[in-house]
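Changelog-adjacent note: as of this version, every example in the card shows the full chain rather than a window. The one below runs 557 residues end to end.
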Amino acid sequence: MQKDISIAQSAKIKKISKIAKKILKIPESEIQTFGHYKAKISLSYLQKLKEKKNSKLILVTAISPTPAGEGKTTTTVGLGDALNRIGKKTIICLREPSLGPVFGMKGGAAGGGYSQIVPMEDINLHFTGDFSAISLAHNLLSAMLDNHIYYGNALDIDLSRIQWKRVIDMNDRSLRKITVGLKEIKKGFPYDNGFETVAASEVMAILCLASSINDLKKRLGQIVVAYNNQGLSVTAKDLKAHGAMTVLLKDAISPNLVQTLENNPSFVHGGPFANIAHGCNSVVSTKAALKLADYVVTEAGFGSDLGAEKFIDIKCRKSNLRPSAVVVVATVRAIKYHGGVELDNLIKEDILSLEKGLANLERHVKNIIDIYNLPCVVTINKFSDDTKKEIKLIIDRMKKLGVNIVLSDHWAKGSKGAVDLANEVIRLSKGQKKEMKFVYNDSDSLWKKINKIAKKIYHAKEVVAEKQIIDQITKLQNSGFGHYPVCIAKTQFSFSTDPKLRGSPINHSISVREIRLAAGAEFIVVICGNIMTLPGLPKIPSAEKIDYIDDKVVGLF
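Full-length structure tokens:
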């Protein structure tokens, strides 16, 4: 079979203006095109849709990620195409890929095989400039903060309590810690600072949670950049930076419209990391899609312990969105990996390891149906080496939970390979209405919220933190931030904070090592374990294989 990029480059792409007009009934005057195949939809047009009834929202999540791969984005695209194939007008909503992972380990993030979003090269690279705008807005705030200090520090900022770092859309570990202003002779310089990835920026989170330009500007003004010598917060509004930041983001907040290989509409907008941030595409694009289609298929980053938890407890809580059904993605290989099989042996039948690894899938499914009270289907991405015995074991185990298994082959067959999944999703979404539940209540204390996630979702026995961290949480609670959701940053590879702990660990400890107030995004970031806010490149980065040969991009996958 051809490589993903070859399939994408061979696709018969339609002009995006035609997709907008013929399928979504959006007038050409209401879109801003970027070439022939990318466009932004105007916020003024979306405002006109406000009174339209919402369609059904389908959330795609997965088991804990493994090096074997699960195919969550590919499933999201395949399911969306399949729903369109059987006559259900459907829009797919995805995050924008970050250049760090593209040039690092992923090499691309727009689906795969015959279930892709196109133009694949553009989406994976500069796209419509949203990441650049977010980076510029973030770093403008950094520059204005330093400029304020340079010209006398009228706000009396405590230089030891500057919270705001710079960002870059690249995995560059050398920039994690830097010294700012080495050659400056002004008071306040030099001082220690650092870089984070754009996907981890609070500006990214704000853009993805904002409901309008005015809401965006308000949230940007709330960003806490530092504390003064009296211990009071200093915000972007105090620095008079939020207006200019909004100007830089005025186009970026509009949803990006592209298409699948089968010419079905897709919104690809926003890209917060799922382990460091909340891992969902923008509220604006999701809500727009719900007004323009019968079904909306979206995904949340990584496994359900991170992506789905934050999708529900942060995004749904803040935007009043409610999924009608949830799809949990898995592969036989990935389940065996959680049962202890190493990568080299995953193609061999191994019933004992599969049975052991199923504990990971079961935990994710139970969280969806028991904690969130949402209907759920498990889809297994098919591989040629999957055996009948292995498939039967998975089906039998899921039956005990009252959950159906659907085999999908959309990677090789496109929408044809996901029709059964589409029909099951329709059945579930038409079923008895259930009221979605959250893991915690707004009224719970911040410490209680952290503990509820750790114990209910991760099955930890305890949450531990040094006195300094506990005091910080208490101060945030007493300062009026106790009603905020918590955004736990931890490894995606395990329910625990140890990426090597596969399967379904219980009675482990969740160690909180850092607390951050994201006052603009309106959540509290809880950093647990050894999690990086600026990853580094692997020993052999994907960038080594990416090239431009004979007028074509090669090496993306």
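Structural remarks: The mean pLDDT is 95.
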